[in-house]
Each structure stands twice: as structure tokens, then as C-alpha cells.
Amino acid sequence: MQFENYTLANGLQVLLHHDPERTVVTVNVLYKVGSRNDPPHRTGFAHLFEHLMFAGSKHVPNFDDALQLAGGENNAVTSSDYTLYYDVLPAENVETALWLESDRMRQLRFSERSLENEKRVVVEEFRETCLEQPYGDLYHHFNALIYREHPYRWPVIGQDISHIQQATLGEVRDFYARYYRPDNAVLCLAGCFDATTIRERIAQWFGDIPPSDPALPQPAIAPEPEQEGPRQQTVYGEVPSPVIYLHYRTVDRLHPDFPATDVLSFLLGGGRSSWLYRRLVRDTELYAEVSAGINDNLEYGGIIVEARPSEDVAYATAYDALLAAIDALLEQGIGEEELAKVIHQLEQRNHYREANISNRANELVFYAALGEPELINTEMERYLALTVDELNRVARKYLVAERRVLLEYLSAPAES
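The chain above was modelled as a monomer; its predicted structure follows.
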């Protein structure tokens, strides 16, 4: 994948992937701010701010209306580590997206009315997803069990609904001034655009936006200490059935062991042919569902297992079988055939993502946020170079009790 990578004088990193065969262009702006940057008394603030970014800027009273008039669509997502805004529109209207994104980077419109409106939206989302849904508060418990110091210990939507309800306009202005600056952002264009003039157009719209004020530094984030032993918690709630959640602490996103941990999560619970599914669902019917994957944190990563026992199986039997199945993987080891199958699946997934221009933009801007945009072309080589010896070494290093967090989410006992 060919792309240009350069930085404006104000610190804005720009990535250009030109594909003249496309009829559309994707314009992504990633800000390096996520829930990890929430003030401890304002958890959920980065997510609230995602909503505020659509409430209007100095010259744009309604972001969505302006983009739709240009034939485009947009959305955004907040993670623990970053917030991504993306627009897709006809190639000939690319400058509309540049105008819109630069205007809200330059001067977001703040008002008590817009803040109250967006607070109501976010509070209602919190109620619907966390308070009114079975298992909705899972990550409020699970994250706090996994992390003791780092802000990953609260979920993206926030730890407490009052943190959003009590947010003030002054706090919103401060958050914007600290994090929504060009030197804390990445702009990515992918698709069809005039390659001979695009740099000039980007400079026109973004070049004179002031960078961060040195008087408003970003607060330091506490490092997470090493996990020194297994952790376990039982949560009771009004849920239809018990579920077991496991987390095994692994590595940062750029660590050399990351590709092996990613493959290991696929082998463990990535589909109907995975290790846990075969042993716990297909062969023994002890579980109704079981899956595994990696969390999406850039630091202090982990492999997560979610397992739902079958209704007619004693919970203690299912519980023991889950941990025994993971231990059996370490004892028996992973074979060449299993590794080859997973690598093939990952290659298919990679090719599928590359077919969509928006996926290309999302991948490129993500790697830029990591500080290594060239990984979009080279990371698969790390996966293809994996051996069964390396994979088994990683499994025996990380899938151990000392790195395990176990949360049982059980049905509340009946009142006597």
C-alpha cells in the first residue's frame, strides 16, 4: 500500500493514500485522546466529547447536514487510547470534508445548551447499555479487577453516571484546548483526490491552526504495575445465565510478542474450529458459547475469554473444565496444522479489509497513532514468520495463573 507521510509546521501529521480508481474519498481525523485521558472524577469525558464534536463549530452550525449536502456520511468512535472521526464522500467534494474537519479543530462551538443536550444523550446511553441490559456493567467490574493504577481501569463510557451529569462548560473548554490540537492529531485521506494540489488544499485549511499551548500540558498517566498473581471476583446480577470471563495479561501493541498473542487468541477461541470451542461446546456440550480475542488497548494488552456454561450442566463442572482446557493447550502444545489454519484465516481477513478504501484509511491512521505507519505493509510478515515453537513459548509464558483475572457473573440468588 503506497502512501505519503508528512507533518505540517503546527504538528499535524498527514497521510495520503491515492487511489484514482475510486469514486469516493475517506477523510479520517484521529485525535490521540481516549478514556485513558479522562480526569478520574470525569470518567466518560472523551466519549462525551465525541458527541460534542458534532454539535457545531464556528462556521458550521450542523456538521451532519453540511456533509450530507455534499453526498457524504460520517461517524466516530472513542476507544481507550484515541478518538477517530471519519467522513466518506464523493471524490469531487473532498474539500467539503477538509473544511468541516478543520473548522471543528480550529474552533468548536461551546454553549451550555449544546453541553446539556449531549450530556442527556450520553447519560441515556449509559442507562440503556450499562444499567438496563444484562451484564451491562461487566466492564465496570472487569476493568477495575484487571487494572489497579492505569486509567484503563474504567470503561470508555465512564465509571459513574454522575461524572457526566456534573460536567461543566469550563471543563469541556479545558479538555478541548489540551487534546484537540493539530499536534495531537493525524489526518488521513484515502481514495480519489487531485494528487497535484491536495497538499496545498490541506495546508490552506489546516496549516494555520495553532498547536498546543505549553501552558496546558497533558497530565501524566500512572503506569500499571506488573500483575503478581491471579485475581478473582464474583458479581451477582439479574442475568439469564452465569458467564465466566478470563483475562490474561500480555504485552503492549508494539511488543515483539504481540503477533503471537493475537494468533494465540484465534487458536484459543476464534471460531467453531478453535481449541476451546471444540473441547467445551462441540465435543462435550459443557458450554453453550465460548470465544476468545485480544483487548484493543495499546498498552498492557491481554487475551480475553468469554464462556457461557450450558443450562443443564453443573456450574462447578463447567468452571473446572474451562481452566482444564486452557491448561491442556499448554501441556499438549500447538501443532503446525493449527498454526497454518489460523495464519490462513488472518491473511483472508487482511485481504478483505484491504478491499475497502475506508478500512485502508482506518488501518493507516491507526498505525500512525502507534507511531509506525509503515506497519500497515510489514506487520503481516511478523505473523507469517511465526513458528509453533514461538507460539508455544508465548502460550506458556502468558496463559498462566499468575497473569489471570477471573470474573464470574452469576445470577442473583433467589430471595428467601
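The CA atoms of residues 159 and 273 lie 36 Å apart.
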